[in-house]
Amino acid sequence: MLKIAWSKIYKHPLPENHRFPMEKYELLPQQLLYEGTVTEENFFQPEPLDESLILSTHDKEYWDKLKNLKLSRKEERKTGFPLSKELVDRELIITEGTVRAAKYALENGAAMNIAGGTHHAYTNRGEGFCLLNDIAVSSNYLLGQNLANQILVVDLDVHQGNGTAQIFENEDRVFTFSMHGEKNYPLKKEQSDLDIELPDNTGDKEYLEILRNKLPELIEAVNPDFVFFQSGVDVLADDKLGRLALTINGCKQRDEIVLDTCYQNNLPVCMSMGGGYSKQLSKIIEAHSNTYRLAQKIFF
């Protein structure tokens, strides 16, 4: 059964003029239930993350400032969020959701988190709407528990996974692959194990051809036994923060390539939703829903 992490706390209240579309965290599960892609049984309720797991990835000094709401104004501005206890609690819930989804993926082949994909969080700071790095924490959990030996991170959000790259820059057991907009945020990129930088307005044909060629090569070269997939839909043409030009169908084909490759290679895959900032919320929901539809079709 496809297991999906979701909590009402994912939709954290923010100022009305904030550009981050928090509504998707409430509407996406409603859509999936309405159309019959999933039932209530597919969802599980994440719990607050244990502090020891946070400290497996993030510096104690940073975590102490975060949990005690002691970030400086500059540090807070870099996260993009007004800091509050509710926001920190939300990050703990999201990150635990990905940790537990990874365990479900080992059991069932695939699992998902309605939120997550917080790939801009570094060991010692938050950036770009990310405070804790759920993919990095979950990767370290699997390695620490001997549940995985070699992890491949497939990050297809339109923005480089700079925090994930920094966290694992000296960890050979985690291979970080990021395919993203060359001129998009962050302006200063970190060095992933493999970065593919795409010019503005890259469309379906060029994007999908690169992914179809590169992903099988990576599977063969890295020989992973677990995959984390950051499936941000901010690659869409009308995304406010994107600069690429994929269609809804192109984004769907992207997800199908990743999920089918994992399935054909018997690789468990844990998916985090990442970004999506299209002008029409309905497009964001449809693009994310396709990822769940494909996971059900391919794995179950």
UniProtKB/TrEMBL annotation:
Keyword annotations of the record: Hydrolase
Asked whether the UniProt record includes Hydrolase among its keywords, one would answer yes
Annotated ranges, domain Histone deacetylase: 18-288
What superkingdom heads the lineage? Answer: Bacteria
Please name the Pfam families in this protein's record. Hist_deacetyl
State the signal peptide span: none
| A GO biological-process term | epigenetic regulation of gene expression
Q: Does the keyword Hydrolase apply?
A: yes
Q: Which Gene Ontology terms cover its molecular function?
A: histone deacetylase activity; hydrolase activity
Entry's family note = Belongs to the histone deacetylase family.
Q: What is this protein called?
A: Histone deacetylase
Give the organism the record lists: Salibacter halophilus
